[in-house]
Write a structure and sequence with these properties.
Length: 350
């Protein structure tokens, strides 16, 4: 029987000389890697030890969800939700430790949607079109990305919510190239049902732009573009990619084994990802996730040694705080030891 999600925990406000976040009580110490805010009130988060959380009141209370079948040993790295009742969550791990589950009843029960059948496979992200990029208004077109198998990135796509299908001619990979399952943001779905992958490892860093996701016609190969980020090791590369429109985007990363090293941690594009320029003043350390904050017209990037913001489309970055974060979906950020923060209203001005 599934464990019902009945435990509610109150908000915990923590002040810091550098923090721009109000810390909220997740009532747990499991590391959190994924977060997705549906709106100002509803958000979901996930992490190690099968932990999945949900709030319906802006984080005043975070609810522990039922653990999916066989999920207590899994490491949930990303979650995507449509409302307070419907969401998918994926786990990252070798072979069949990579799985995708779905709930339609507010996380009281989960059903398994997909399981990795490749022993050498490792899933990295599951992302859908959203906001201005959801051109058809269905919010049901997305991709699931995994590390390369047989020389190509494992890619499964869903069009208009009509089930998942495997792309057998997905983006070709370099030797020792991979994507990072650090924040569920190594892939972005945008434009006319296209996606773009940020890669790393010894074979990276690059970005890979897909052809159109239309009519299951994959006749064209992905466009591969180098990015000026840290590389040359298994721990370095591009970790997160995001766009504010079809032309302007940022990619962030670095070397997670050197969290305080600002070298090669951010780049920007103004032509839809076809060319990338290194930030003239980068974030002050490795960054695992970035997002566009439309209200303040600013980019925000988070990592294990803090938060940075950019007012000039990623060309220069300014330190905002020194908190420890893994992933961001505004107004929330999540990190190690059950850490959840909500961005303080008015803390970032346009």
């Amino acid at each position: 029987m599934a464990r019902l999600p009945v435990f509610l925990f109150p908000l915990l406000i923590v002040a810091s000389a550098h923090a721009q976040w109000d810390l909220q009580d997740s009532h747990g110490k499991s590391g959190l890697r994924g977060v997705h805010a549906v709106n100002d009130s509803v958000a979901w988060a996930c992490g190690a030890d099968g932990v999945i959380l949900r709030t319906e009141d802006g984080g005043t209370h975070w609810q522990h969800c039922a653990i999916p079948p066989e999920g207590d040993k899994l490491d949930f790295r990303g979650i995507w939700a449509w409302d307070a009742t419907s969401a998918v969550v994926f786990s990252a791990g070798p072979g069949d430790k990579s799985r995708l589950y779905k709930t339609t009843d507010g996380c009281a029960h989960w059903t398994e949607e997909r399981r990795n059948s490749e022993p050498e496979g490792f899933w990295d992200a599951v992302v859908f079109q959203a906001g201005d990029f959801d051109m058809l208004g269905d919010n049901k077109t997305g991709v699931l990305i995994g590390d390369p198998v047989h020389g190509r990135f494992h890619t499964e796509a869903m069009l208009l919510g009509h089930g998942w299908f495997l792309d057998e001619s997905s983006c070709a990979a370099h030797a020792d190239e991979s994507a990072f399952a650090a924040s569920n943001s190594a892939v972005f779905v945008f434009g006319s049902r296209r996606y773009i992958i940020a890669t790393g490892g010894k074979g990276g860093p690059r970005v890979l732009l897909s052809p159109l996701l239309a009519h299951r016609n994959w006749s064209k190969d992905c466009m591969a573009v180098p990015v000026p980020l840290a590389g040359g090791s298994d721990s370095a590369g591009a970790f997160s990619i995001a766009f504010r429109d079809v032309n302007h985007g940022v990619v962030v990363g670095g070397d997670f084994k050197k969290p305080g090293d600002p070298t090669g941690t951010a780049a920007w594009t103004a032509d839809g990802g076809r060319h990338w320029t290194a930030a003239a003043k980068p974030p002050h350390g490795y960054r695992s996730a970035a997002t566009w904050f439309a209200e303040a017209k600013v980019w925000i990037a988070v990592g294990t040694n803090g938060t940075d913001i950019s007012y000039d489309d990623g060309k220069t970055w300014k330190s905002l705080d020194d908190g420890n974060w893994n992933a961001i979906s505004l107004p929330y950020a999540v990190g190690p030891d059950g850490r959840i923060g909500r961005l303080r209203p008015g803390s970032i001005k346009p």
